[in-house]
Design goal:
- The chain is mainly alpha-helical.
- It is about 60% helix and about 5% strand.
- It is built from 58 helices and 18 strands.
- Strands 2-3-4-1-5 form a five-stranded parallel β-sheet. A five-stranded parallel β-sheet has the order 15-16-17-14-18. Strands 8-9-13 form a three-stranded parallel β-sheet, covered by helices on one side.
- β8 (about 580), α21 (about 590-600) and β9 (about 600-605) form a beta-alpha-beta unit.
- The radius of gyration is 47 Å and the shape is globular.
- About 30% of the residues are buried.
Length: about 1450
């Protein structure tokens, strides 16, 4: 095998560096045998990086087959695929070359590729692959092949030749498909394309065994120099890292549901990293060692030279004394000269100041002149240009006019006046030859001059006489007929002359102002020139004395040893020109190629879970050398690869699942902030706000400490560099001696600074840590809201938004000098601020859930919290086995008894089961209480258990009241405001938005915020005309884009409705929000409004950086009433008091609102509320109250019958389709629309006296009354029995706990057991107790379908239905066990079964085939077994004496 590998690498352009351990040799042998078989095809299953392709290439080489692979680029299309397939088949069929088609699953851009593969595996042909010309060419070639090879064909027809072609393909083509078993794609493809199994030999690539890991490590570390013992330990270390990370990755997925893959490629990368790091560190250490050794040698030599130098210094002492005296004299002389220089310098500075002032004045005058002339020169130039267009022939044409238009005459008069030509007087025949001024005659004489146009162009414009220009202004400039645009109609030549006259007037007007200034400018420039001459003379004098002083200083420095240290200033690293791209960019590939070529870093933003296949060569680093230059092929281009290139990829997905083929090719970093990191960040923020000087000092210390450490390192490097680079005696190197001396002093200074800084930092940290409770508290809140995305994908909140809210809360919270009070105020204010802002964006069902998470999270932060108790509250006892018999089976459900038994395993619950058995009567009284959550527990448990532990007890006995108890628990720990979500307030939400922050309505069934939004736009926004709306869908994307772009410029509002219907356009919307809707481009009044149902495809970046709102019907009678009274139109004072019959109006208004709340709340009771759930909404209420007001204003007597008909039969009744529901609706309405509500102030809506219509009062009184109502209404208020609450409250509790579980990590209560072990045992337990399917044949034989006994039909139908359920349960449990063992794939459906069993819930796959049930897993299984036993008893023993009505799958069948 090694010889084959050597030969392959010798011949191949891409040699393979393989380690041939036993595991690899087995796979090569298997694939070789498959390829050598006739029609041998292989399906290689394993995660990317396990060697599937390498094994195939080597096996193909052994068999002397050529390997064919497609090259997928971004533009690779289905046509390209078909071209490649044709090329491959022709090569195998006509040329007869044995070919291995190697195809990996990451190359399958379209599923249609697999359809072709499926057909090829079956028939070796693809229908309609070849056109007529290609088919004829194939037949022609096959005829030649048949003749050359002597193939006998009975009849050489086209069909026979083509069949020969197909047969040769069967013989020569071998297809090898490499697929990953991770994810659902593998399972789905095997199901959709059965030939992948039927026509292929499957070869599974399992995890590398330990001996393989050891061999690979030894192979790659063989060239590393190390001791044998160290080598063994290094190999063991690599193995340990690999295996331990695999185990940690499994725990990571089990606990947090996050995926991390460890593959053979990861192991190879680990070894390469180890080798590179080892080599790098060895080089560093060796370099340091050599530098230290050289330095020590230099210092040792210097030490020996010091004694010699001391002797020399003693001998030189007299000479040094003489030199010192000479130096002192030189210093005195320099001081005298410096006085002279300073005096000269002051004179020159004074002269220079005068000159500068003169220059500034001249410049100001010059600038003013140029500004004035800038007005006139354009007009003048335009006039000259107009004259340039005129020719002498144009003038001659004007001159030849016998009776010219008045405009032409007017222009020529003005030209003559400008030229100073006097008008000639001539007799006028029209006036009896009276002498008059004849300007036209004069003009013709002027135009007769051949140089007429030249005279205008060279006109002396700077010396126009005042009387001439005054005449032009008085008679022509203001004359409306003297307008170039008017003159143009008469003559274009005259138009140019008119413009010339006007330009002369403008120029003269400006010139009169500019002329004096020009004179001043000339004088100023003359004075400046004079000053500059004097200044230059003084400067020359100063230069002479300065040069003299410099020469003296140089002589002085030459006399003494240099005492100054050279300061090296280091430049900060400049930006590396980072490029940012997205996959949606049209030119992203070109940008990427440029960055690769020029070595600039690039960032690919916001990718999903799948990357462009065109990036694969880059991720695999398929770099090859040509002429000693690195190249890489990207797409269709081969480009030079720069070693400086860096590639960064980011995603906004909270928990992306990158398959191994992506994960192993990049370094995956989780940038989700950690709790300690966030805590430190929040501590810095709160300290900076509360103690700004303290935080500044802390930051300064950090910077100084880092600077000191850097200086020490630089000093050490400099010393070692000087010692190692100096030649000869170090004492003779003045620079070296200075560096050593200064370094010693600087090191001592830094050491002292560090000691002081350390003490100061400790004091600062102690002061900062006083605010750590605030930082810890706020970090807990952030991670609580981060987990909400597990409930709904739209619940996304950014860290930036969180920090801004935190800062605002610090500013708004109550001040206090007492630190403990201040910390309490900060925590309290920020917690409620978070609650208000987040609740606004939550659905009603999740608001109490969020409050519970806040409460529990804060409690966990304050003290040790028992996680097992918390988990037990959420799931109850998930064990199926209960060896203890129920002692109170007559009133206590078996599920409740199982929960009581399970409590015994919790801390602080020791003996709880035994106490129940001994005190059944006391517990029965507790169980039967109407409000058990308010009842004390039997002694001693009421005193022994905490308020949280009492919730567990209530869950065991009365799970229906758990939600009430949780609400009380929240009130007790956080406050009442945390169970009363703030009412919907669009105006407040709008204030938190901006022109770059969108607003999103998260929709729920029945919610339509458009009318509310348009009303708000009319009252507080740009008006309805400037609020544009569009409902997204197919083809609406470009229209929406144009609408946004126009609105951004004009400051309008845009409403994009139903964004969830435009999934393909959402990436474009994200790009618009990031790149277009920015402060520089968007108008300040612009707003983008979005509406969408929850969608996994909605861009996370938009969700995190927007104001989110829900406009859902509030939960509860009180909340519903309050919403009606605090929203338009009832909240409008004019509307509220706008009725003539004010008493009757306010009574009926309250009645309508109460009725509206009642009909909506009855939906939560299921079939008990309405036979069919109807989508009543706010529009029903609004139209009803408006009609009621109109009717009361128009009629003298209150028209109750008419109102009842309109509201009951039309507005609300229009939605009702069931006759019984309509009857109920009218019955309910009659409680509020009657004379009693108007005339009797004591009239009650039900027996509970708290519900009534208040007497005529002010608006605020009604709001106060509503707020005083009970938070949870009694069923009687809805016209229902109190037991109606049980089903609804059980459903509420179930939804609450299910939602909370979705935010929790997957932990198992059984200590010492993994989740897999626990679920496996649960599956075994259920399967062992579940009987097989009913025998339909036996049932139909014993109980045949006949008219005389209709129960036989019911029995047969029931067992058929239960058989379907039993089959689903048994198969899902068995497959889950196989998936846990690794025998089959853990598909998405099996993973749901796994998670549900772990959480004690009934899997969705079961519920699809099951009878309706709200029971948790344990209760459901026991209930199922009881139903099965009931029917089995019926089959065995005959018809029962009493039928279990609720035990039927389909009860209506039995009743029928």
């Amino acid at each position: 095998m090694s010889r084959y590998l050597y030969d392959y690498n010798s011949e191949s352009k891409a040699p393979m560096d393989l380690v041939l351990f036993g595991f690899a040799i087995e796979h090569i042998s298997r694939v070789s045998r498959i390829l050598l078989q006739p029609k041998g095809h292989a399906l290689l299953v394993g995660i990317d990086g396990c060697g599937r392709r390498s094994v195939t290439r080597l096996a193909s080489f052994i068999a002397s087959y050529q390997v064919f692979q497609i090259e997928v680029t971004r533009n690779y299309s289905f046509n390209d695929w078909r071209d490649d397939i044709r090329k491959m088949l022709l090569n195998a069929g006509t040329a007869g070359k044995s070919t291995v088609f190697l195809l990996a699953d990451n190359q399958l851009k379209e599923e249609s590729y697999l359809e072709d593969i499926n057909t090829l595996l079956n028939t070796a042909d693809i229908p309609n692959l070849y056109d007529a010309e290609e088919r004829a060419e194939i037949i022609d070639k096959m005829q030649k092949v048949a003749q050359e090879r002597g193939v006998k064909v009975e009849v050489a027809t086209q069909s026979s030749m083509y069949n020969l072609f197909i047969e040769r393909i069967r013989h020569h083509l071998h297809i090898v498909i490499a697929m990953s078993p991770i994810g659902d794609a593998f399972r789905n493809r095997l199901r959709m394309f059965p030939s992948l199994i039927n026509c292929c030999t499957i070869n599974w690539f399992q995890v590398w065994p330990e001996d393989a890991l050891e061999m690979v490590a030894n192979y790659y570390l063989d060239d590393v120099e190390m001791d044998a013992r160290v080598r063994v330990e290094s190999v063991s270390l690599c193995k340990y890292f690999h295996e331990s990370i695999r185990a940690l990755s499994s725990r990571y997925e089990e606990s947090l549901g996050r995926h991390n893959y460890v593959t053979p490629t990861s192991y190879l990368d680990l070894i390469r990293l180890f080798k590179n790091l080892l080599a790098h560190k060895r080089l560093d250490i060796l370099t340091l060692k050599n530098r230290y050794l050289t330095g020590l040698q230099k210092l040792d030599f210097a030490s020996s030279q010091i004694s010699i130098m001391q002797t020399d210094l003693t001998n030189l002492k007299p000479e040094l004394i003489y030199t010192s005296e000479e130096t002192e004299k030189l210093i005195d002389y320099i001081k005298e000269e410096k006085v002279t220089v300073d005096a000269k310098k002051k004179i020159v500075e004074a002269e220079e100041a005068v000159a500068n002032q003169a220059a500034n004045e001249a410049q100001a005058i010059k600038q003013d002149c140029e500004e004035k002339l800038a007005v006139a020169l354009p007009a003048l130039n335009a006039a000259i240009s107009a004259l340039d267009t005129l020719k002498q022939s144009d003038i001659s044409m004007i001159k030849s006019m016998q009776n010219p238009p008045n405009g032409v005459k007017l222009v020529m008069e003005a030209v003559c006046i400008m030229k100073g030509v006097k008008c000639e007087r001539r007799p006028d025949p029209a006036q009896n030859n009276k002498m008059v001024d004849d300007w036209w005659y004069t003009s013709k004489k002027v135009m007769g001059d051949l140089k007429f146009l030249d005279s205008l162009k060279e006109f002396e414009k700077d010396n126009i006489q005042a009387k001439i220009i005054q005449k032009i202004r008085n008679n022509y400039i203001n004359n409306p007929d003297f307008n170039p645009d008017v003159i143009k109609n008469a003559s274009t030549a005259a138009e140019g002359l008119c413009r010339w006259v006007r330009a002369m007037e403008i120029y003269d007007r400006v010139a009169k102002v500019v002329a004096p200034k020009r004179a001043r400018l000339a004088a100023a420039e003359k004075e400046l020139e004079k000053q500059m001459v004097q200044l230059e003379h003084k400067r020359n004098e100063l230069k002479v004395v300065v040069d003299k002083l410099d020469l003296l200083n140089e002589n002085f420095e030459a006399r003494i040893n240099k005492k100054q240290a050279n300061k090296w200033i280091k430049n900060l690293e400049k930006s590396n020109n980072l490029h940012v791209i997205k996959l949606t960019d049209t030119n992203y590939m070109r940008t990427l190629q440029n960055c690769i070529q020029f070595g600039t870093p690039i960032l690919l933003e916001n990718v999903g879970e799948e990357l462009d296949p065109a990036l694969e060569p880059l991720l695999l680093k398929l770099i090859f050398k040509q002429n000693n230059i690195d190249y890489i092929r990207i797409g269709d281009s081969i480009i030079e690869y720069s070693s400086d290139f860096r590639f960064y990829i980011t995603t906004c997905l909270r928990n992306p699942h990158y398959l191994p083929e992506v994960a192993i090719r990049v370094n995956v970093l989780n940038f989700m902030i950690t709790a300690p990191g966030l805590e430190d960040q929040m501590l810095s923020i709160v300290t900076a706000k509360e103690k700004p000087l303290l935080e500044e000092k802390k930051n300064a210390l950090i910077e100084e400490s880092a600077k000191n450490r850097k200086q020490l390192k630089d000093i050490e490097d400099k010393i070692l560099e000087v010692l190692s680079s100096s030649e000869g005696n170090i004492l003779e190197d003045e620079t070296g001696v200075e560096i050593l001396s200064s370094s010693r002093v600087l090191a001592k200074e830094i050491a002292v600074k560090e000691e002081i800084a350390s003490k100061t930092e400790k004091e600062i940290d102690e002061a900062r840590n006083c605010y750590r409770p605030v930082a810890k508290h706020s970090a807990v809140l952030f991670f609580i809201i981060s987990d909400l995305a597990n409930i709904e994908p739209m619940y996304q909140y950014s860290l930036t938004w969180f920090i801004n809210l935190f800062i605002r809360s610090i500013q708004d919270s109550q001040e206090s000098d007492d630190l403990d009070e201040r910390i309490s105020a900060l925590n309290k204010h920020f917690t409620y601020s978070i609650y208000q802002n987040v609740s606004r964006s939550l659905f009603e069902k999740d608001k109490i859930l969020f409050s519970l998470l806040l409460c529990i999270g804060i409690e966990k932060n304050k003290k040790e919290f028992d996680e097992l108790q918390w988990r037990y509250l959420l799931t109850g006892n998930i064990s199926i086995n209960n060896p203890y018999k129920n002692p109170a089976s007559d009133w206590l459900a078996d599920k409740s008894w199982a929960d009581i038994v399970g409590c015994n395993n919790l801390s602080n619950f020791e003996g709880f089961k035994e106490h129940f058995e001994d005190n059944i009567l006391e517990w029965k009284n507790y169980y039967n209480s109407a409000k058990p959550h308010l009842e004390p527990l039997p002694k001693p448990w009421n005193e022994k258990l905490t308020s949280f532990e009492k919730l567990i007890v209530l869950r065991c006995f009365r799970n229906d009241k758990t939600t009430h108890a949780i609400r009380d628990y929240i009130i007790g720990h956080l406050g009442k405001e945390y169970v009363e979500p703030p009412a919907f307030n669009l105006a407040k939400s709008f204030l938190e938005s901006s022109h770059v922050v969108p607003l999103i309505f998260i929709l729920s069934p029945g919610a339509d915020p458009l009318s509310l939004l348009l009303k708000f736009a009319e009252n507080s926004g740009p008006g309805r005309k400037n609020c544009q709306t569009i409902s997204l869908g197919q083809g609406q994307g470009p229209i929406a884009t144009n609408m946004i772009q126009m609105a951004m410029k004009q400051g309008k509002w845009v409403v994009l409705q139903n964004c969830h219907l435009a999934v393909s356009w959402l990436p474009n919307l994200e790009k618009i929000c990031e790149e277009e809707i920015v402060p520089e481009k968007a108008h300040a009044n612009f707003r983008l409004w979005l509406t969408s149902y929850p969608s996994n495809h909605f861009p996370v970046s938009i969700l995190q950086n927007s104001v989110k709102m829900t406009n859902e019907i509030p939960k509860g009678l009180r909340s519903n009433l309050l919403r009606s009274y605090t929203t338009d139109p009832i909240s409008n004072e004019q509307f509220f008091n706008g009725c003539d019959k004010i008493k009757e109006w306010k009574k009926l208004l309250f009645g309508v609102c109460f009725f509206h709340a009642l009909v909506q709340e009855r939906r939560s009771f299921g079939p008990l509320g309405w036979n069919i759930p109807y989508e009543f909404n706010d529009s029903d209420l609004h139209i009803s109250v408006r009609q009621a007001q109109n009717f009361l204003n128009e009629y003298e007597v209150v028209p109750l019958d008419a109102l009842t008909y309109i509201i009951g039969q039309c507005n609300y009744g229009g939605r009702v389709t069931d006759d019984w529901d309509r009857r109920l609706l009218l019955s309910l309405l009659s409680r509020f629309f009657n004379l009693h509500i108007i005339e009797d102030d004591q009239y009650k809506f039900c027996d509970d006296a708290v519900y009534y219509a208040p007497a005529d009062s002010a608006y605020q009184d009604y709001v106060d009354y509503i707020q005083s109502l009970p938070l949870v209404a009694h069923p009687e208020a809805y016209g229902l029995h109190e037991n109606a609450d049980i089903t609804r409250e059980l459903k509420d509790t179930h939804e609450l706990f299910t939602g909370v579980l979705a935010t929790q990590p997957r932990e198992v209560a059984n200590k010492g057991k993994s989740p897999q072990d626990t679920v496996y045992e649960m599956c075994s337990d259920i399967l062992s107790k579940m009987s097989g399917e009913f025998s339909i044949k036996e049932v139909t034989t014993l109980y045949p379908v006949r008219y005389e006994d209709s129960m036989n039909t019911v029995l047969t139908q029931e067992v058929i239905r239960f058989n379907r359920l039993i089959k689903v349960i048994q198969s899902s449990l068995q497959n889950t066990q196989k998936a846990i063992k690794g025998q089959i794939i853990m598909s998405a459906q099996l993973e749901d079964v796994f998670n549900s069993l772990l959480d004690g819930k009934v899997p969705n796959a079961w519920m699809k085939k099951s009878y309706p049930s709200l029971k948790p897993l344990g209760g459901y299984i026991l209930d199922l077994f009881a139903r099965i036993n009931f029917f089995q008893s019926w089959i065995t023993n005959g018809h029962p004496l009493a039928y279990w009505l609720s035990g039927f799958y389909f009860t209506q069948s039995f009743l029928t």
